[in-house]
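In this supplementary section we document a worked example of the pipeline. Step one takes a protein sequence of length 198 as its only input; no multiple sequence alignment statistics are reported here. Step two produces a three-dimensional model, which step three serialises into structure tokens for compact storage. The input and output of this example are shown verbatim.
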Amino acid sequence: MPLQIGVTGGIGAGKSVVCQIFGALGIPIYSADDRAKWLLNHDTVLKTAVLGLLGSNAYQENGIYNRAWVASQVFHQPALLQQLNALVHPRVRQDTQQWIQTHQNAPYLIKEAAIMAKAEANNGLDKVILVQAPVALRVSRTKQRDPHRTETEIKDITARQMPDDERLKIADFVVYNDETQLLIPQVWQLHQLFLTND
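The serialised model returned by step three reads:
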């Protein structure tokens, strides 16, 4: 089995950019958040379960997952969010396993997710990379990327995510995306390390 490397970080830290660099080096990337969105729209079993939990407003008339409405429902209801995650996460885990099977000949694999446990904590990961950036920079990046979100909303999301000092406890490596250090050399160094670590 190839090494499985997790990439995590807070909203706006630059996880996707780091993953794009690994991707440009020929490494397969699994984005848990993107796949969860895809499954919510295309997996009929999951769609049925979500409709059962949240009702018909969870999907628009055209059958597309009503992300904004669902977010507004679960934002202040942790128990409901937990129930929704209990439907989505097992399906994403199955999807991940299928993806791994199709990439067994890769030198190593990258799995990107906003929420992640320490490597070897029953998550199949061998190492975890934390992408780190100051909160103010993360907020301004997210505002640029998602202009429909207010600064207050972004700060709320940031506040509800795992704090940076907690994330550091699960990290085996840290990539600094703080605009004071170049990203590509940091990723290249890790790439070389993972290639020699099969």
